[in-house]
Amino acid sequence: MSPWAGRTMPGCFSMTRRFGRWLVGLPPTLFLLLFFVAPSLIMIVASFRLAGEYGGLAPLVEHGRWQLTLETYRFFFSDFIYVEIFIRSFSVALATTLICVLLAYPLAWLIARSPKKHQDLMVLLAVLPFASNFLIRVYAWMIILGPQAAVARALNSLLAMFGFEPVTLLFSPFAVLVGMVYVHLPFMILPLYTNLARHDPALLDAAQDLGANAWQRFWEVTWPLSLPGIYAGSVLVFIPVLGMFAIPDILGGTGDILIGNVIKEQFLGTRDWPFGATLSLMLTLAVLACAGLAAWLARRGVGRHA
Amino acid sequence: MALLELRKLTRRFGDFSAVDNVSLSIESGEFVTLLGPSGCGKTTILRMIAGFDLPDVGQILLDGSNIADIPPEKRPLHTVFQSYALFPHMTVADNVAFPLRMAHFDKAAIAAKVHEALESVYLSDRARAYPHELSGGRKQRVALARSLVNRPRLLLLDEPLAALDAKLREEMQHELIDLQREIGITFIFVTHAQDEALALSHRVAVMNRGRIEQYDEPSKIYGFPRNRFVADFIGNTNLLEVAVTEATPTHLRLAAAGLGDIVSPPREGTRAGQKGWFSVRPEQVRIGGHLDGELENHYSGKVRSFIYVGDVTTYTVELADGTAIEALLSNSAPGRARFFEVGDDVAVGWPHDAGVFLHD
Questions:
Q1: More confident residue, B75 or B291
Q2: For B134-143, what is the mean pLDDT?
Q3: Does the beta-carbon distance from B88 to A207 stay under 8 Å?
Q4: Under CATH, what is the fold of the domain A78-305?
Q5: Three-state secondary-structure class, residue B4
Q6: Phi-psi bin for B179: left (phi > 0), alpha (psi -120 to 50), beta?
Q7: Nearest to B132 among A200, A212, A306 (CB)
Q8: What is the ipTM of this complex?
Q9: Which of B106, B97, B109, B137 is nearest to B121 (CA)?
Q10: Interchain CB distance below 8 Å, B81 and A205
Q11: Residue A200 has pLDDT above 70, yes or no
């Protein structure tokens, strides 16, 4: 029974309780209003404004006239390049998420199946990379994937043996994907581990007892019960990857820019704030759509697994 | 040939023998209970029969053939787990269909069998519910239906009623008895509750420290316990330390310290001079203001305390030497909650054919 089970109680007790709930809800509401809703509104308005001569925004009202335009949106849809970058960003985010699921699942499963006393240490090791700076970790990949590094040389001598041309690992979509997966993997491991550790081992015994072989026990019991963990991890990986600009900047080639790079460029390079705002807004809408889809999928799962 | 036979089964965990040289044979259609305190090895035996654990020594024979090499999923038997272990992401119907799907039955056959199984546990109307929407008793019934739907040779039940409240537990006991009789599948039931064991089973194996102390019908277990552990574990009893002074084919004469002579039924293999225990059940002990001379064994004392539980009252009578004897009195006389008060002078006694002498 939830602690709010008494919410239908009549009289002044329910009044105090309602006031208490309101009080508790106030700080996060204020936080969201101040740091999410307000900036979003500013962005929405900015996307309809004109760019300033030297960057920034032109005044909203000039000579007694509103300076608003749909120009940025027309521009966004007029040039297929932006839609293409959007599609590429979504593909990279999707690929990163899928690879993270494939890599994190066995690892999380292994941690969850380990003796209780080792689990905390293993989780700590999984998130240990966070202890060092993000940029340093990404730069480290520049060295690892660089043309003089052992990885590239070994791979290229292997390719040469079979008569293939040598390849460059760094500054390629491959390097971007490696960086994305590397940085975001812990965000997939943690929710998956939390989910898998909660599974009742008696369910697997029961499945086996009722005639399920190892594969069937996984596919019929473990996998469906772990879906909420996969949804949670996917949200935590997919959304940050969509907006990521540092990794393509460092590890990617010129053709590997993602929507995050374009937005950054609008604000810091081209200084076209209205168009930057438009791109950001499109990205936010797309992310919200994805999050909504994930939440819907997860709720469908949770309703059954409660 | 017995359906299931355990031959000299031993299972050690480190230095500790969870199961110690256990042999047991179970006939087809029987309802057998493994009864014992927690840690006595009953669950370990169940897990070895199911295949989740392997014996260090000994054999498990099903229909006369050793099943040691058969993995759990291939054994023609199912377990009802204490926690029910229903799949939370499947409906009641899908849970029950699970073993049939694993056995690759076709869809129509599965639907028919699931329907029939749910009908037999009165849950046809809850087929589409999820386990978390069901009460404990209903979850239990789903677990039963799921385990019985593909007609295993043997059903293992691991304390399945432990999580239910008293009233529901009694209801489920009746349902289990009826179900087992109807379908005729052999049940092996594990419990630490002696009333459950006596109520449900054709035969009970009383276990202690990895060994079977006695394997018999409930009435034999209760009426003729083989040793002190069984007498003490099953029901309430008065245990007196005694020495045998006379052993004849018709009776035994026992000397109890401070109490004097006790005449008890004969027991094979008993010789004068042996030491042991005398057990007499509270309901065999009569209590009265004064008892007439018909009872061979009678003693006087004072009521020390009593426990009134509705249908009966149990009096604890302290004899002159300090020995406490429990006597049970039925409250069937209308309007009479109890007959004696604390401190009343009373006599207790039992006939020569009551009670049993125990060697150890």
A1: B75
A2: 92
A3: no
A4: MetI-like fold (1.10.3720)
A5: strand
A6: alpha
A7: A306
A8: 0.84
A9: B137
A10: yes
A11: yes
- CATH 3.40.50.300 range(s) for chain B read 4-228
Q: Is B241 helix (H, G, I), strand (E, B) or coil?
A: strand
Q: Which sequence spans correspond to the domains of chain A?
A: 78-305
Domain B4-228 belongs to what architecture?
A: 3-Layer(aba) Sandwich (3.40)
Residues B354 and B335: their CA atoms lie apart, in Å, by 30
Average pLDDT on A11-21 reads: 76
Phi, psi of B11 (to 5 degrees): -135, 120
Mutate to test the interface with A, among B89, B133, B151 (most CBs of A within 10 A): B89
C-beta atoms of A208 and B147 within 8 A: no
Q: What Rg do the C-alpha atoms of chain A give, in angstroms?
A: 25
Helix, strand, or coil (residue A132): coil
pTM of full prediction above 0.95 = no
Q: If you ran DSSP here, which 8-state letter would residue A257 be given?
A: -
- Measured CB to CB, residues of chain A less than 8 Å from chain B are 200, 202-203, 205-213, 216, 220-221, 224-225, 301, 304-306
As beta bridge partners, residue B303 has B317
> Can you say whether residue A116 is alpha, beta or left, with left for phi > 0 and alpha for psi between -120 and 50 degrees?
alpha
Which of A205, A210, A215, A226 to mutate: most B Cβ within 10 Å? A210
Burial class (CB in 10 A: 0-12, 13-18, 19+), A164: exposed
- Residue found under tokens 């086996």: A208
Beta bridge partners, B306, equal B315
Q: Smallest Cα–Cα separation from B34: which of B189, B229, B202?
A: B189
DSSP collapsed to 3 states, A186-229: HHHHHHHHHHHHCCCHHHHHHHHHCCCCHHHHHHHHHHHHHHHH
Q: Would you say residue B345 has pLDDT above 70?
A: yes
Q: Indicate the burial class of B350 (C-beta count within 10 angstroms; 0-12, 13-18, 19 or more).
A: buried
A194 CB neighbour count, 10 Å cutoff: 16
- Helix, strand, coil in percent for chain A, rounding step 5: 80, 5, 20
Cβ pair A205:B79 closer than 8 A = yes
Q: What is the pLDDT of residues B210-258, one digit of tens each?
A: 999 999 999 999 999 999 999 999 989 999 999 999 888 888 999 888 7
Residues of CATH 2.40.50.100 domain(s) within chain B?
236-358
| Pairwise CA distance, residues A136 & A145, whole Å | 14
Give the single-character DSSP code of B40. Answer: S
Chain B interface disruption, residue of A204, A209, A219, most B CBs within 10 A: A209
Q: Do A205 and B83 touch (CB under 8 A)?
A: no
Q: How confident is the model at residue A66 (pLDDT cuts 50, 70, 90)?
A: confident
Task: Flag whether pLDDT at A1 surpasses 60.
Answer: no
Query: What CATH number does domain B236-358 carry, 3.40.190.10, 3.30.420.40, 3.10.580.10, 2.40.50.100?
Result: 2.40.50.100
- Collapse the DSSP code of A166 into the 3-class scheme (helix H, G, I; strand E, B; otherwise coil) and give the result: coil
pLDDT at A101 (0 to 100): 97
